[in-house]
Design goal:
This protein has 13 helices and 10 strands. By secondary structure, the protein is of the alpha/beta class. The protein has a single domain, classed as Aldolase class I (TIM Barrel, Alpha-Beta Barrel). Strands 1, 2, 3, 4, 5, 6, 7, 8, 9 and 10 form a 10-stranded parallel beta sheet that branches. The protein starts with 15 loop residues before the first helix and ends with a helix. It catalyses: (4R,5S)-dethiobiotin + (sulfur carrier)-SH + 2 reduced [2Fe-2S]-[ferredoxin] + 2 S-adenosyl-L-methionine = (sulfur carrier)-H + biotin + 2 5'-deoxyadenosine + 2 L-methionine + 2 oxidized [2Fe-2S]-[ferredoxin]. Homodimer.
């Protein structure tokens, strides 16, 4: 992470972060300056930050954890130049390349999602946006999945027009994922084939169509701490329902290969900051958690309330049983939709 000064090496005044949590729980949002103080805090403050963040998390979600299952329904072949992505046109990473999978494969994956206790099945394609063949495939398979399994459907199909969003809503898609990925200021450094504004417009099309918005980002792409805070506030202002926070896996063959990784402590402070900024929203520890948080993964669930179970798009996650054991050891429990928990 790019920073102007080294992180402090002393404790913040006692009660600093607990007071912020009380402020949030009283309905008074924290400021950008307060949010920045969380991600800039000393590592010595991490236990206090997580404890304060847990008060907020527990207020809205108790000890529930919602699981998501990710299906890479179309791999590689993407014309965009997102520098973090192994499937982009500028990537030399050896990833599988195939067009959208056939019905039987997508149904089989939905069965795995259900078996693993996932509430949401995430259908993802690599593309600037879906072509007509891909739209029809999604429109055909979604009703079948929902009829057979008790799964919510989240579609991640790239940039969407207003008409495409309406079609997804009509076929039964519950939520669309389209990450902002970084701050508006930093975005041009990680992608040049579309803009930050393009992504925001897709989210507005999703909202106008009556679907929930899932949008988060990737931390550790060379951005500043202020960039992470800016992204968090943009997501809060858009009122997205679900925020996945990825930690960059700097895959060999991508333009961000060799990018310095975040420490587990920095990643956890950033994750906690999202909880303070968006207190009642689903917060998911997404890609890179196994690589960067390592043995500290359980600590992330004191502020986050959601996980992907299984693999990611082109990288492996840890074994599902390890996730179940982690959740159980924390005294937490796998639950259904967030609406069932917080409603």
């Amino acid at each position: 992470m790019s920073v102007a000064t080294a992180a402090p090496t002393s404790f913040s005044p006692a009660g600093t972060f607990d007071a912020m949590a009380s402020q949030v729980l009283e309905g008074r949002p924290i400021s950008r300056e307060q949010a920045l103080s969380i991600v800039e805090a000393s590592d010595l403050d991490l236990p206090a930050i997580l404890a304060a963040g847990y008060r907020i998390r527990h207020h809205y979600f108790a000890n529930s954890v919602q699981l998501y299952f990710l299906m890479n329904a179309k791999s590689g072949l993407c014309p965009e130049d997102c520098h973090y992505c192994s499937q982009s046109k500028v990537s030399e990473a050896p990833v599988p390349k195939y067009n959208i999978l056939k019905r039987d494969d997508l149904m089989a994956a939905a069965g795995v999602a259900a078996e693993r206790g996932a509430k949401t099945y995430c259908l993802v394609i690599s593309a600037r946006g879906p072509n007509e063949r891909e739209m029809v495939a999604v429109e055909t398979i979604v009703p079948e999945i929902k009829q057979k399994y008790d799964l919510d459907i989240c579609a991640c199909l790239g940039l969407l027009t207003a008409d495409q969003a309406q079609r997804l809503k009509a076929c039964g898609v519950d939520r669309v994922n389209h990450n902002l990925n970084s701050s508006e200021m930093h975005y041009a450094k990680i992608c040049t084939t579309h803009t930050y504004a393009d992504r925001v417009q897709t989210l507005r099309n999703v909202r106008d169509a009556g679907m929930e918005m899932c949008s988060g980002g990737i931390i550790g792409m060379g951005e500043s701490r202020a960039d992470i805070v800016s992204m968090a506030f943009d997501l809060a202002e858009l009122e997205v329902e679900s925020i996945p926070v990825n930690i960059l896996n700097a895959i060999d063959g991508t333009p961000l290969e060799g990018t310095d990784s975040l420490s587990p402590q920095d990643a956890l402070k950033a994750l906690a900051m999202f909880r303070f900024v968006a207190p009642d929203k689903e917060l998911r520890i997404a890609g890179g958690r196994e690589l960067h948080l390592r043995s500290l993964q359980p600590m992330g669930l004191y502020v986050a309330n959601s996980l992907f179970v299984g693999d990611y798009l082109t990288t492996q996650g840890q074994a599902p049983q390890a996730d179940y054991d982690m959740i159980t050891d924390l005294g937490f429990e796998i639950t259904g939709s967030c609406e069932e928990v917080s409603g």
